[in-house]
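Weekly sync, protein design subgroup
Attendees: M.S., D.O., the rotation student, P.L. (late)

Item 1: inverse folding check
M.S. brought a backbone from last month's batch and wanted to see whether the design step gives back something sensible before we order anything. D.O. pointed out we never logged the input encoding, so this time it goes straight into the notes. Structure tokens as presented (342 positions):
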């Protein structure tokens, strides 16, 4: 039960919404025709979650991440993931240094020590190198040779990924996929978007962005997001929705082999709070669940062989669950009537 004295008030919500709207307008100048994608990205930012962007090369995934780092004015480092990349290239490694006539190992920090880590084409690296991010993404720290080093706060992994159908890629393991707060699909725009790109951009030129938020602003907005009220009925809906992703618990999950984890439920609860803040509301709603369930759940479901053979997509399963699972819990009396023996 939330402490009512710590619930967000209307004035705070309106001020936060105004700041986030300015950030959204700025990012709309980086990638055209992707308003929903940008809103999802900001939602994950306020919730403190990592994001996996998937799409074909050349659609602006990397530019969007770089633009976000500029608009928020936080440290950003980029790793180009390749098959020969080593875990130490990500986390850093001890280096032998000479000090006052003696030699000792001194830890040299890798690029993971930053606020925004752009993991470009993350699925082109080997699984061993991909796993170097597991501890960093979950616990915001890195352990090397038994020594633990804390990462800067806030810390976000913003990874881009080419579809696994392309040659030279390694599918991300389920343990790492589960650590991504959102998986967002980057779709290509239509001819009107292409015309605007041709008119407004030159090959090789990066868009100029103004700083919208400071480090302090972002930390405050993240704190305000946690204070958005989550009604009991919405929390109950989230719990039932995530539970229904497991096989045997709903008709929509018929082709699912493994459902979503408790981490998914926590992520969805954080997402609906963040989206409510973006909308300037002091409490989360069923609408927020419907708007964020897809990017939270679609990458966390594992389909069985027959479903994959039939071409079923996890996004279709999530959509079916949203249609099948009632928002309001069924009355206890009605359930007792169905189970009673006449």
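Designed sequence read out in the meeting:
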């Amino acid at each position: 039960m939330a402490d009512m004295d710590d619930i967000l008030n209307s004035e705070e919500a309106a001020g936060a919404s105004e700041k986030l709207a300015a950030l959204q307008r700025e990012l709309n100048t980086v990638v055209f025709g992707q308003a929903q994608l940008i809103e999802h990205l900001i939602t994950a930012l306020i919730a403190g979650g990592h994001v996996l962007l998937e799409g074909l090369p050349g659609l602006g995934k990397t530019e969007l991440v770089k633009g976000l780092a500029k608009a928020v004015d936080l440290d950003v480092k980029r790793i180009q993931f390749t098959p020969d990349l080593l875990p130490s290239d990500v986390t850093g490694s001890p280096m032998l240094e000479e000090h006052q006539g003696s030699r000792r190992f001194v830890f040299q920090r890798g690029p993971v020590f930053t606020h925004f880590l752009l993991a470009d084409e993350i699925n082109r690296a080997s699984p061993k190198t991909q796993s170097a991010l597991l501890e960093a993404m979950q616990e915001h720290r890195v352990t090397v040779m038994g020594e633990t080093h804390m990462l800067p706060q806030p810390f976000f992994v913003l990874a881009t990924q080419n579809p696994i159908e392309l040659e030279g890629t390694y599918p991300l393991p389920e343990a790492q996929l589960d650590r991504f707060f959102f998986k967002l699909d980057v779709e290509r725009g239509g001819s009107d978007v292409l015309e605007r790109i041709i008119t407004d951009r030159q090959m090789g030129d990066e868009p100029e962005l103004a700083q919208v938020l400071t480090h302090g602003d972002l930390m405050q907005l993240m704190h305000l997001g946690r204070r958005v009220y989550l009604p009991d009925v919405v929390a109950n809906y989230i719990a039932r929705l995530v539970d229904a992703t497991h096989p045997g618990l709903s008709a929509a999950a018929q082709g699912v082999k493994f459902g979503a984890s408790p981490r998914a439920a926590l992520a969805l609860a954080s997402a609906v709070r963040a989206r409510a803040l973006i909308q300037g509301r002091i409490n989360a709603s069923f609408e927020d669940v419907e708007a964020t369930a897809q990017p939270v759940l679609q990458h966390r479901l594992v389909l069985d062989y027959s479903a994959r053979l039939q071409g079923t997509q996890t996004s279709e399963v999530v959509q079916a669950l949203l249609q099948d699972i009632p928002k309001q819990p069924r009355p206890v009396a009605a359930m007792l009537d169905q189970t009673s023996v006449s």
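Discussion: Confidence is low (pLDDT under 50) at residues 332-342. The first helix runs from residue 10 to 27.
Action: P.L. to compare against the previous round before Friday.
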